[in-house]
Amino acid sequence: MSLSGIEIEVVPAYNTNKTFHPKANNWLGFVITIENEKIYHAGDTDLIPEMGSFPVDIALLPVSGTYVMTSDEAVEAAKRIKPKTALPMHYGSIVGSVNDAVKFKKSLEGFCEVSILEK
User: Fold this and answer.
1) Which residues make beta-bridge pairs with 29?
2) Long-range contacts of the stretch 100-108 (C-beta < 8 A, 24+)
3) Domain assignments of the chain as residue spans, ordered by start
4) Tens of pLDDT, residues 24-67
């Protein structure tokens, strides 16, 4: 799909080791391309095999565990995806804490830039 020069690709988002977001529901993450920059919004997902085929510049990855991948799994996702920048998300509201985001950032030092956004 393309909207005024913005391309939107849908990609899978699902749980592999829990039942909150089953693959059978066909729920989605998104790869959005704006001016040749690819941004991956993982959505509610675990570390899934498909992530190795998402060549992106920026990756927004959930880190809180419980309903989505843990910060350790998100580190592995970032290593598969190889973005220039990673942003941890899905923490601090329902489950997870800023500590999950900090752990994610520290684990990726020297691999890619990690930005923790504040409200």
Assistant:
1) 11
2) 100/63, 100/64, 100/65, 100/70, 100/71, 101/63, 101/71, 103/63, 103/71, 103/72, 104/61, 104/63, 104/71, 104/74, 104/75, 104/78, 107/71, 107/72, 107/75, 108/75, 108/78
3) 2-114
4) 999 999 999 999 999 999 999 999 999 999 999 999 999 999 99
User: CA-to-CA distance for 61 and 44, rounded, in angstroms?
Assistant: 9
pLDDT tens for 75-89 read: 999 999 999 999 999
CB count, 10 Å around CB of 30?
15
Q: What's the CA angle centered on 104, arms 66 and 95, to 5 degrees? A: 25
State whether CATH 3.60.15.10 applies to domain 2-114. Answer: yes
Residue 24's Cβ-count burial label (10 Å; 0-12, 13-18, 19+) is: exposed
pLDDT at 3 over 80: no
